[in-house]
C-alpha cells in the first residue's frame, strides 16, 4: 500500500452532517483519529446531480472521500479504506491479524448491507423524508418493513447473547455501519422494536455512548427543523 | 492468517446450483481453482429454516461455507474470504498489492450491493419466483425497477467506456458479484436493457464467456422445469 505518497494531505469528505451515509464515514474517521475536512454538498440546489460532483460519484450521491488523487464513493467502501489504511491507529475496526475475526467482520458487515439496511431504510424514508416532500408516510410500507426488522433483530438478539458485539467480543465496522439508521430509528414511534430486545437494547446503548459517535450525533438533526 | 491450520480439508459449500447466491460463490471457487464439495440443501422441505442449518446461518439462507471450524454465510463475505485466503492462486480477484486497485474493487462491489442488486432482484423475483408460487408477476414492480436498472446501467456504460471492467482494466470480484442475476436477467423479455448499451453488452459477453462461469452456468436451470 503506497501510503507514503498520500501522507500529509488532509482527507476531504464531501457530504452533510445529517446524512446517514456521510455520518457512517464520519464515525469511522473519529474512531480512527483521522483528521478530515467536511466539504458541504448543497442537495437542495441539486449540486450532487451535476458536474463536477458527478465526476466524483457518477451515481450523484453523498458521501465522497478524496485522498490525494484517489476518489472513493459508497460509504461502506470508504469505511473499509479508512480502516485498512490507518490500521495502526485508533480503534481496530477490521482485525486483519486474525482470520476468524476479520472474516466475522465481513460476514456481519454483509448482514448489515443485505438483511438490516433493506428493511430499516424504507421506514426511515417514510418517517423522515416523505413529510419533507409534503407527503404522508405510507403506513403499509412501514408495517411491512417493521415486521421484517423484528425478524432481523430476533437474530441479532440471539447473536448478542453469545458475543458482546456482532462480529465477536470487539467493536468493529460491522457494528459501526448500523449506527446512523439506528440513531434515526430510535427517534421514530417504533423504537420499542429495539427496546423490547434486551441484548439489542444494551448493544445500542453501548455503541451509541462511544465518544466518536457522540461527536457525530450532535450534527444529526434530520427532520428536526 | 492461520491458513496452515485449515490446510488439507476440502471446503464444504451448502447450497444449490440454481441459487444465484450459491453460484456467486461457486464462480469464485472455480476462478481461484479451489476444490470444494457442494452439499445440497433441500429448500422445498424447509431444511434451511430448521436446525441444524440455522446453527450455520441464523437467517436461514443459502449458501454457507464451512472451512474446518470456520462457518461463513452471506455470499459476498464468502467470496472475499476465498479471494483473500487463496490470494496466491488462480485469478487475482481483489488486488491487495495496489492501494488504488483494491479500493476500486471495494467501491464497485458496494455499487453492486447497493445500486444494482436492489433493483435487479425484484425483477428476477417477479419473473422466476412468483410463477412458481402460482402468482402472476406484478408488472408495476417490474417496470419501476427496470427504469431504475436503466439508470444504473447508464452509469456502467460510461464507466466501461473508460475501463475494461468495473474496478479497472482487470476482472475482479466487483464484476463477478453481478454474474448470477445478470445471467437470469438475460433470460427475461427485458434483456434489451443490457443489449442496448454497447459497452455493458460487450462486458457481459466477455465475463460470461470465462471458463469458471461456464462451468457454473450449466447448472443454472431456475424456472426451466
UniProtKB/TrEMBL annotation, chains A, B:
UniProt cross-references to InterPro entries, sorted A to Z: Glutathione-S-Trfase_C-like, Glutathione-S-Trfase_C_sf, Glutathione_S-Trfase, Glutathione_S-Trfase_N, GST_C, GST_Phi_C, Thioredoxin-like_sf
Main location class: cytoplasm
EC number: 2.5.1.18
Top-rank lineage group of the source organism: Eukaryota
A GO CC annotation given for this chain: cytosol
Enzyme class per UniProt: transferase
A Pfam match: GST_N
Subcellular localization, as worded in the UniProt entry: Cytoplasm, Cytosol
One GO BP annotation of this record: toxin catabolic process
Name the record gives this protein: glutathione transferase
Amino acid at each position: 500500500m503506497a501510503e507514503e505518497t498520500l501522507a500529509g494531505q488532509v482527507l476531504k469528505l464531501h457530504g452533510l452532517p445529517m446524512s446517514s451515509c456521510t455520518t457512517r464515514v464520519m464515525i469511522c474517521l473519529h474512531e480512527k483519529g483521522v483528521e478530515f475536512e467536511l466539504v458541504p454538498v448543497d442537495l437542495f440546489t441539486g449540486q450532487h446531480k451535476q458536474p463536477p460532483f458527478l465526476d466524483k460519484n457518477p451515481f450523484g450521491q453523498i458521501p465522497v472521500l478524496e485522498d490525494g488523487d484517489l476518489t472513493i464513493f459508497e460509504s461502506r467502501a470508504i469505511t473499509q479504506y479508512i480502516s485498512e489504511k490507518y490500521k495502526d491507529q485508533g480503534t481496530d475496526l477490521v482485525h486483519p491479524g486474525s482470520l476468524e475475526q476479520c472474516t466475522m467482520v465481513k460476514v456481519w458487515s454483509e448482514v448489515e448491507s443485505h438483511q438490516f439496511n433493506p428493511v430499516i431504510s424504507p421506514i426511515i424514508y417514510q418517517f423522515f423524508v416523505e413529510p419533507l416532500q409534503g407527503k404522508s408516510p405510507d403506513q403499509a410500507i412501514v408495517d411491512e418493513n417493521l415486521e421484517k426488522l423484528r425478524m432481523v433483530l430476533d437474530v441479532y438478539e440471539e447473536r448478542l447473547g453469545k458475543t458482546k458485539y456482532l462480529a465477536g467480543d470487539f467493536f468493529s465496522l460491522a457494528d459501526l455501519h448500523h449506527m446512523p439508521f439506528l440513531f434515526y430509528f430510535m427517534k421514530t414511534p417504533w423504537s420499542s422494536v429495539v427496546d423490547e430486545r434486551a441484548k439489542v437494547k444494551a448493544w445500542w446503548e453501548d455503541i451509541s455512548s462511544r465518544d466518536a459517535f457522540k461527536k457525530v450525533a450532535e450534527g444529526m438533526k434530520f427532520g428536526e427543523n
